[in-house]
Amino acid sequence: MSDHWPINRCSLLKRSIRSVTKLLDLGWKLAMPLVYVHGVGNRWDDGYQRRSEQRDGLFRQFVFPVIGADPAEAIRSPFWGDLGGHLRWSGSSFPTSGSEAFGDGEADLIDEIAATELAMDSDRFLVTVAHRDLADAVDLLFSVCPMPVSSDDIGAAAVQLVAYCTSRARAVPDGDSLSRHPWLAEVEDDEDLIEQLLQHSTGWSLDQHGDPRHTAARRPAESLSAGGGAWLNGGLRLVRRAAIGAPMSTALHVARAMVGERATTVAADALVYLSSRGDANAPGGIVQRVADAVEEAARKRTDDRPLVVVAHSLGGLITYDVLSHYRPDLTVDVLVTVGSQVGLFAELGLLRSSDPSLPTVEQPRIDVPPNIRRWLNVVDRADVLAFRAEPVFRAVRDFVYPSAAVWAHGAYFRQPHFHARLAQRILRGPR
Questions:
Q1: What is the pLDDT of residue 101?
Q2: More confident position, 54 or 118
């Protein structure tokens, strides 16, 4: 046995070196803390808590595996909505019915335009979307579904459906939805679509790299809980009600009210933040809360335990202010801004670190501070509150994500394909 010891010891040493090298190569993906900074219009109520539960559940299902995070790892989500804008007259300034008409006509032009019902097949609305892109149909359901089941059920459904859609897209990269999913041609209505989708996606999941894999076939009821299936059908009912179940006049009034209320909250939160953020010596309450959360996560940051911060909407501006002005001592390995206005506020010179002399011929774009090691900016062209950053900043990448949602600004984090693509970008990009 002693004759073989040098060979065994050498073999063991080589295996150890390979293992250490592999760990070093993957080190930036191990046990990575995650911080999420919300945007405008969030107030602490049941709706916010349900959205947070769904968002965090999808983070855990899609992002955690590729960054090697422990499922029990806390997602730090500093809440600052209570410090945002509050309307002292409860929104009485918002334009509603009840005011005297300025002209001769008493009817609203929208009512005149909306005199007819929407001419759509109420039983095949989702089928129509699926014929264009099945992944869009899946994301549409998740964008409107209520939250009666646990985030684990929702996450399991999301992973199963995304893995199946991704596998078919890779198998037929140049094909349309019908060539990728021939069974769609035989689908009778929306209920049948959901049933067939669950059957064809049975056994699909994602590996630790976010790639689809198929396991032994199981019954749909075993691969996706009955609660999850009922949840998807609940989403279908909401899609119909919102998109085709009412006269156009009702739909347009609802859309006008929704956009108006959102726009009011956006303006209120942005104005309050800009007027109260303070300076480096005396940061305002919103800045302090976000900085504290990033600092708490950064305490665990090491070479093998990097830090990811995902910031939505105005949360992107707040996070950039924190890292570029208030706390340049904090290092973030990956910053992801989604539907954010950092680029717009930079053009307006309203960043806390804005240099009024820029841009110049010698420096046409802003240098990203070195404590932001990598920055991804996601923009949905349908999102009126999302702005590009790459033309304004150096060392940032813009990515387009089409949510296909009516109110795109709030749809990103409810859609499973967004989380799947986010995980892949975090995994594949350079540090």
A1: 54
A2: 54
Distance CA 130, CA 281 (A): 54
DSSP strand pairing (204-206 vs 212-214)? antiparallel
Distance CA 320, CA 431 (A): 18
User: Alpha helix (H) ranges present in 118-247?
Assistant: 125-132, 134-144, 151-171, 177-180, 190-201, 220-223, 226-243
State the Rg of the chain over Cα: 25
Domains, the chain, in order of start with CATH, read 27-86+250-428 (3.40.50.1820), 121-246 (no CATH)
Average pLDDT over residues 186-211: 90
Distances 294 to 42, 81, 115, 200, 347 between C-alpha atoms, Å: 19, 17, 52, 42, 26
Query: Do residues 184 and 190 make contact, with C-beta atoms less than 8 angstroms apart?
Result: no
248-276 and 285-298 helices cross at what angle (nearest 10)? Answer: 80
Check whether 323 has a pLDDT greater than 80: yes
- Answer with the residue of higher pLDDT: 367 or 225: 367
What is the C-alpha separation between 144 and 175, in angstroms, rounded? 28
CB neighbour list of residue 279: distance below 8 Å, 6 or more residues apart: 352
160's CB contacts (< 8 A; 6+ apart) are 201, 202, 204, 205, 223, 224
Interhelix angle 134-144/226-243, rounded to 10 degrees, is 90
* Confidence (pLDDT) at 296: 94
Helix (H, G, I), strand (E, B) or coil at 107: coil
pTM, two decimals, is: 0.80
The rounded distance, in Å, linking the Cα atoms of 214 and 206 is 8
Q: In the prediction, which pLDDT does 351 show?
A: 97
| Per-position DSSP letters for 312-325, written without gaps between them | ETHHHHHHHHIIII
| Cα separation, 409 vs 386, whole angstroms | 8
pLDDT tens-digit map of 262-306: 566 778 899 999 999 999 999 999 999 999 999 999 998 877 778
3-state secondary structure (DSSP) of residue 424: helix
* Residue appearing with tokens 């996706």: 224
Q: Which of 38-52, 251-265, 394-408 has the lowest mean pLDDT?
A: 251-265
DSSP-derived letter for residue 386 is -
| Omega before 369 within 30 of 0, i.e. cis | no
